[in-house]
Amino acid sequence: MLSKFDYVKPKTVEEAVAFLENNPGTRVLAGGTDLIVLLRRNLLITDHILDIKGIEGLHRLDYKEGKGLYIGAAVLVNEISEAPMIQDKYRALSQAAGSLASHQLRNRATLVGNICNASPGADLSTPLLVYNAVVHIEGPEGKRELGIEDFFTGVKKTALKKGEIVTGVSLPDVQEGDSSYYKKQARVKGHDLATVGISIRRTSEQETLMGMAAIAPTPIRLRELEKKLKNRDFNEETANWLKEEIKNHVKPISDVRASLEYRFLVSGALAKKIMMTLMEEGVK
Amino acid sequence: MSEKILEHIGKGYDRKEAQEKVTGQAVYVHDMEVPGMLYAKVLLSPFAHAEIVSIDYSEAEKLKGVKAVVTGKEACQRVGLYMVDKNIMAGKKVRYQGEIVSAVVAESEAVAEEAVTLIKVEYKELPIVHNLDEALEAKVLVHENLHTYEHMKGVFFPKKDSNIASWNRTKKGDIKKGFEEADFIFEDEFSVPAVAHVPMETHVTIAQADPYSDKIKIWSSAQSPFAVRQLLAKSMGIAKGNVNVIVPYVGGGFGGKAGVHLEPLVSVLSKAVHGLPVKLKMTREEEFNILPTRAGMRARFKTGMTKEGKITAMEVYHDWDSGAYADYGVNVGKTAVYSGAGPYAVPNIELHSRTIYTNKVFSTAYRGFGHLETHWAVERHMDIMAQKLNIDPYELRMKNLLRPGDTTISGELIYPTTGDPVACLNAVKNELKWTGRKSQEDRKREMETGKVRGQGFAMLQKAPAMPSYTSTSAIMQMDEDGHVKVMLGAVDFGQGANTIMAQVAAEELRVPMKDVEVVWNVETDKHPYDWNTVASKYTFMGGNAVRKAARNMVQQMKEVAGQVLRCHTDELTHGDGYIYHVHQTHRRISYVKLSMGYAYENGNGIGGPLISHGVYMASGLSNPDPETGQGRPGLVWTFGAHGVDLEVDVETGEVNILKIVSAFDIGKVINKKLVDGQVYGGIVQGVGSALIEGYKFDGEAKLLNPYFGDNRIPSSKDIPDEVKAIYIEEPKTAQVDGPYGARGIGEHPMISVPSAIGNALYEALEINFHRLPLTPENVALAIDKHYNNDESK
């Protein structure tokens, strides 16, 4: 590791923002599961690392009826995957959290870190997309909120401006009868990066929301496809139609993890499987 | 006391070192710090094939804490065992991306790492040899002067003006006649990619090279201390006795730590800093990128068959993509000459095994030593021929398996005590409940559910690949309290050799296991010689040596006891810590009283400290004939078979292994816990080769996946749902010259796991796979091509 950096651990968001403003190029450390890899491979050289885990408010994880779910920037992925309330209300999020890397890494990694790293294949991006998550940002100009779809701007790029940090993510409350499911295809059955990741949510009003990862430069909502699903029931015919149709809505590339041909194939396979599973559970 | 009743052999003792390892007390080279020690880091070539025009390390030298910078000019010694084709460090040119071009020694690893970035190397890029076909064209040569390289003459055959490091041949019978006798001729081509060994402990060496003499002291994570000593001494041009190699606990090897690796380089680095100890340890990325792999391989089979399914002739090409160097690679290639057509009786065969240079990370030994690769081809080929002949694949194998009286492809006669492949296949078939191929209707019905099951099986065989004159030795000494210490030259790097050897010693001496200790920390200055800890041969060879040493120690005790008890040694037996008269059992003397020599009541002493030794040398082996490959290279064969029951998701291509059943004619299980460990681990490693692993290179032959993120190996969730191991211990087919009938088992479990899985996938999908790995991607794309694209036409 060639970086020789100072390590700071502020106690408040204000302190953190002030430090970031005064020290351009500072890297934010939450779990470090992406950052340390970059530092070790010397793909990143930095003078300052700012650890946000000392900021008490960022550890907040709660659900309030009518308001929804709030996940602070320092909340661990295992806290999310193990929370019964999230399993109950936001199943795709719980499943995606449970599929991220290994148990040991999930004890370090954070959800906010996963989205700030902005990998096209970010495991936790697709459930946030289908739940219309809101990203809470603080910076020199104050606080602002941004829809998760607008947060991802490119490969490893986000809408964060200089001096800004994400303090948390919130998910609106869900109604009775709302259901979702997450699946990912990987190269091994144990922990691995996603070849393709997908979340499908069916609301109580039978609206369908679909989020996908690793099939475009950023995680995306399949809005056109969602429209086409509007007047369709969830049944085997729809599932088979979806398996083929989805290929018109994704733009995968070939890389060291998978070919574009396989990503097309498996997008359809996973979407169909999710729809069949939801259907078997009584979702219409 | 009957010789047949075994007290310790066959007992599932825990590993002798288990407690030390699980409590974290075991010391590995990674943990070690030597007083005054400095640290090294290396600079790698970014190009696969390039001339080194100049190296400017002036900036690196100026960095505070840097003690020395070394390049290929200083580290120019040759190194090698079979084919001496490599310099310690790249000299005038680099031959693979990842080859070491320079090294820095500094006060800390961090300083060394920073200094490495300050070295400026000017390269002139050369055209790259990417693959076997380009290599065989020989328009570009990886080694211009390979015909001048020192190599084992008459055993390896480099070709001038080519990229062929060695072209080994088998010629038996008359293939022209054999093909004429055939009713059908079948041709197939198969391939496997290069894969990594992935030991938990990466390669690491500490060297201390005395500047005032030729003495070099090495601590290394290595499988073969005596091979390191021999090769290091040869490279440095010094006497072997000047080199002391110490191997403490080793965190896995899998063949990747056979031979010599970092040791010569670190010795040169220590010389460069006036003999201070220097440590160089590989990061995981360096382990993937710098250190050798299992070779990629392409096999082409042409087989003549009668309509009844008897093999009449085979023509085989095994082409090994050995990458930039082929020191160990040529010996892997050589195994195909006697084992590259599977455990079958082939009356007429011409087999070519070519070890070939390309501009990629080079190859070395890997668990299975070429057999996983050759058997992927042979056993898939047998299954495909069975399909085409419409013969059950079990029946086809039964018609052709080697039986006593047959000869192997290299002309070795099979004796009843060579082992029984037929028994292995039958055991697997019965456990799998194989009743023949499934019907088209059943397959179609399953396809509609999205998941299809399939069963398949495959044979395997292997004998140690080693020089015909390989030997080993053991020394044994009894303490004053009757406790016995055993010294060996082989390394227990996880396979359990030391526990097995303790069992052999305890058995022969008739003492409890707690009274035998095999001394760890093998040190060439002190421990007796062993050639190399490789080849699944140590239970056989080491077991024989330890048995002889123990018997000799008993004989020494009997000779002294005979004098004291006034009887002939023939009348004495031993057990429970005593030498005693076979009938008048009260006439006895304890081991303790004999351990340092016996003292009479009046003070007279006779005998002396009990020290014994035993040796074993491979018996009756010969080099294969250079033209025909005929000879006797196989000291001890172990035959086996795998059966697989799997389920494949026809949409995602994911393969789920429900059960693997494996049978081995092991002769005698000395420790079932340890054998199970080898079998389960080997099977999982085989599953890795089958379903997951493989190096990937870009158009510039740069390694694309030099880290775990993209060079995947099986995780705990990839272990088959059920593994059933069957050990055949039939006295009639056991290894009569092995210890208690035992044969080797270390490498065998991973051989043919891919072939059995490939055969089961055919049974599930009616698709023949020819290339590894069978990733979800490769399986799904093949299904799509076979069922969807063809249908739409």
Q: What is the strand and helix layout of this fold?
A:
The complex is a heterodimer of chains A (284) and B (793).
Chain A: E1 6-8, H1 13-22, E2 27-29, H2 35-40, E3 48-51, E4 61-64, E5 68-72, H3 77-82, H4 84-89, H5 91-99, H6 103-106, H7 111-117, H8 125-130, E6 134-139, E7 142-147, H9 148-151, E8 152-154, E9 157-158, E10 165-171, E11 179-185, E12 196-202, E13 208-213, E14 220-221, H10 223-228, H11 236-245, H12 260-280
Parallel strand pairs in A: 1-3, 2-3
Antiparallel strand pairs in A: 4-5, 5-10, 6-7, 6-10, 8-9, 11-12, 12-13, 13-14
Helix pairs in contact in A: 11-12
Chain B: H1 18-22, E1 38-44, E2 50-56, H2 58-62, E3 66-71, E4 78-79, E5 86-87, E6 93-94, E7 100-106, H3 109-117, E8 120-125, H4 132-137, E9 164-172, H5 175-181, E10 184-192, E11 204-209, E12 216-220, H6 225-236, E13 243-247, H7 263-272, E14 278-281, H8 284-289, E15 296-305, E16 311-321, H9 329-339, E17 349-356, H10 371-389, H11 393-400, H12 421-432, H13 440-449, E18 451-462, E19 471-478, E20 484-488, H14 497-509, E21 516-518, E22 522-523, H15 538-565, E23 572-575, E24 578-581, E25 588-590, H16 591-594, E26 596-599, E27 605-609, E28 611-617, E29 638-649, E30 655-664, H17 672-692, E31 723-727, H18 753-765, H19 776-792
Parallel strand pairs in B: 1-14, 12-13, 16-17, 20-21, 30-31
Antiparallel strand pairs in B: 1-7, 2-6, 2-8, 3-7, 4-5, 9-17, 10-15, 11-12, 11-14, 13-22, 15-16, 18-29, 19-20, 19-28, 23-24, 24-25, 26-27, 29-30
Helix pairs in contact in B: 10-18, 14-15, 17-18
Structural write-up:
The complex is a heterodimer of chains A (284) and B (793). Chain A is an alpha+beta fold. Chain A has three domains: 6-54, 2-Layer Sandwich (Uridine Diphospho-n-acetylenolpyruvylglucosamine Reductase, domain 2), CATH 3.30.43; 56-171, Uridine Diphospho-n-acetylenolpyruvylglucosamine Reductase, domain 3; 179-280, Enolase-like, domain 1 (2-Layer Sandwich). In chain A, 33% of the residues lie in helices and 23% in strands. Chain A contains twelve helices and 14 strands. Chain A has helices at 13-22, 35-40, 77-82, 84-89, 91-99, 103-106, 111-117, 125-130, 148-151, 223-228, 236-245, 260-280, and strands at 6-8, 27-29, 48-51, 61-64, 68-72, 134-139, 142-147, 152-154, 157-158, 165-171, 179-185, 196-202, 208-213, 220-221. Chain A has a five-stranded antiparallel sheet with strand order 4-5-10-6-7. In chain A, strands 11-12-13-14 form a four-stranded antiparallel sheet. By secondary structure, chain B is of the alpha+beta class. Chain B contains 19 helices and 31 strands. In chain B, helix 14 (497-509) packs parallel to helix 15. Chain B is 27% helix and 24% strand. The longest helix of chain B has 28 residues, at 538-565. Chain B folds into three domains: 18-25 and 470-617, Aldehyde Oxidoreductase, domain 4; 32-126 and 203-281, Aldehyde oxidase/xanthine dehydrogenase, a/b hammerhead (Aldehyde Oxidoreductase, domain 3, Alpha-Beta Complex), CATH 3.90.1170.50; 296-466 and 622-792, Aldehyde oxidase/xanthine dehydrogenase, molybdopterin binding domain (Aldehyde Oxidoreductase, domain 4). The termini of chain B are far apart. In chain B, the strands form eight sheets. An eight-stranded mixed sheet of chain B has the order 3-7-1-14-11-12-13-22. In chain B, strands 9-17-16-15-10 form a five-stranded mixed sheet, with helices on both faces. Classes of the chains: A alpha+beta (284), B alpha+beta (793). The A-B interface holds A 1-2, 37, 40-42, 185, 187-193, 195, 243, 256-259, 261-262, 265-266, 268-270, 272-273 and B 110, 113-114, 117, 283, 285, 649, 651-654, 656, 692, 696, 704-705, 707, 709-710, 712-718, 775-777, 780-781, 784.
